[in-house]
Amino acid sequence: MKQKMMARLLRTSFALVFLGLFGVLGAATISCRNEEGKAVDWFTFYKLPKRQNKESGETGLEYLYLDSTTRSWRKSEQLMNTTKSVLGRTLQQLYEAYASKSNNTAYLIYNDGVPKSVNCSRKYGHTKGLLLWNRVQGFWLIHSIPQFPPVPEEGYDYPPTGRRNGQSGICITFKYNQYEAIDSQLLVCNPNVYSCSIPATFHQELIHMPQLCNRASSSEIPGRLLTTLQSAQGQKFLHFAKSDSFLDDIFAAWMAQRLKTHLLTETWQRKRQELPSNCSLPYHVYNIKAIKLSRHSYFSSYQDHAKWCTSQKGTKNRWTCIGDLNRSPHQAFRSGGFICTQNWHIYQAFQGLVLYYKSCNQTW
Ligand SMILES: *[C@@H]1O[C@H](CO)[C@@H](O)[C@H](O)[C@H]1NC(C)=O
Ligand SMILES: *[C@@H]1O[C@H](CO)[C@@H](O)[C@H](O)[C@H]1NC(C)=O
Ligand SMILES: *[C@@H]1O[C@H](CO)[C@@H](O)[C@H](O)[C@H]1NC(C)=O
Ligand SMILES: *[C@@H]1O[C@H](CO)[C@@H](O)[C@H](O)[C@H]1NC(C)=O
Which of 60, 193, 239, 281 lies in the 20 to 30 Å Cα band around 221? Predict the structure, then answer.
């Protein structure tokens, strides 16, 4: 009798533990995904430009890829326009959430260049990205691709506007307890949100994202904000966010000095609209001019719409940042941000791409 009761009790508690675990794990699966569709803590990608002078069969859809489980860049197996690409796999979770109309999942998609619109909004930040999360965890994708992604009802696609030039991005998986900090960073970035759903269950902790989603004018926006963030697996990041009232070059005036490192920056710099390499302040900023893919393969920064920087070789404090803004005088007037890490593999990967950068006082 006693044994029977014991057995029943055990069975019930097993069932409860199992259901409990399933409930948590089932809800916890929102994360960055690799090309196999497996959850990864973070990944970064570098979509390669389509070089005009080459008859190499480049489509402008190939990319380099690095994640928390690999150690160096890999050439993608898939083209960026397929649902099996790393962005396709990761965004699949957005389409599932959208279709289920689940009221415990939230998303926010923003881009200064809205899909299928000819207008680029200057009213909002020069910032592009996507967040998808529930009360357990989610991911933040920060990227440079104009007019990407399409609204969720249209499913996955990669726009022609992202094809010719190089593009960069990073996806990081965060536990829900990081979202309050992200909420404040996003406010400062002043994103142009073109698709979103933030159910009421989040409105207590997250103040700004529901307002951004409703395009309600917000409370006072700080000039700049810096926060530490930690990925679900414990990788540390620093996020710099500047508003349009911080009227300066984010790299020279803030990031290099704060990170205490000389930075090599790769951004979209059109001719006669570039801020030169800058050695005025204690920590310098140098413009990268050419990217090397291998000993025989390289491309010019004029073909690159990516936005990233990395510590100069040989200096201490080895940082790498990926984000929103270019080294152009006009970008002082725009909001946007960068996410930075001291992860060794990310540093090695980006450092390895630098072929040539301009020193200060160099006129050619
Ligand atoms: C992706 O782009 C390639 C090269 O342009 C094209 O052949 C292919 O049909 C595209 N695939 C999809 C799913 O759009
Ligand atoms: C949202 O969740 C609440 C509480 O679980 C439930 O009562 C409600 O029906 C849900 N709404 C929708 C639209 O699914
Ligand atoms: C683009 O901007 C112009 C001028 O501001 C406006 O008239 C037009 O409606 C906008 N088009 C779209 C698609 O938003
Ligand atoms: C270097 O950058 C700082 C901060 O933006 C700026 O004040 C300074 O004028 C710049 N120096 C040169 C030579 O452009």
Answer: 281
How many Å apart are CA 38 and CA 27, to the nearest integer? 16
Ligand found nearest the CA of 329: 4
Which of 242, 247, 249, 255 is the pocket-test mutation for ligand 4 (most atoms within 8 Å of CB)? 249
Distance separating alpha carbons of residues 269 and 3, to the nearest angstrom? 76
Q: Three-class SS string for 6-37? A: HHHHHHHHHHHHHHHHHHHHHHCCCCEECCCC
| Cα–Cα distance measured from residue 178 to residue 197, given in angstroms and rounded to the nearest whole number | 19
Determine whether the shortest distance from the Cβ of 122 to ligand 3 is under 6 A: no
Residue nearest atom 4 in ligand 1 by C-alpha distance: 59
Under the banding of pLDDT at 50, 70 and 90, the label for residue 271 is confident
Exposed / middle / buried, residue 136 (Cβ in 10 Å: 0-12, 13-18, 19+)? middle
What is d(CA 303, CA 354) in angstroms, rounded to the nearest whole number?
14
* Residue 14 binned pLDDT confidence (cut-offs 50, 70, 90): low
> Which ligand 4 atom is at minimum distance from the Cα of 360?
13
CA distance 186 to 218: 12
- Name the pTM for this structure: 0.91
Mean pLDDT computed over 243-261: 98
Tell whether the model's pLDDT for residue 329 goes beyond 90.
Answer: yes
Angle at 61 between CA 58 and CA 66, to 5 degrees: 110
End-to-end CA distance of the chain: 92
Q: Is the pLDDT of residue 326 over 90?
A: yes
Cα distance between residue 150 and residue 254, in whole Å: 33
Task: Report the nearest atom of ligand 1 relative to the CA of 83.
Answer: 13
- Is 304's C-beta closer than 6 angstroms to any atom of ligand 4? no
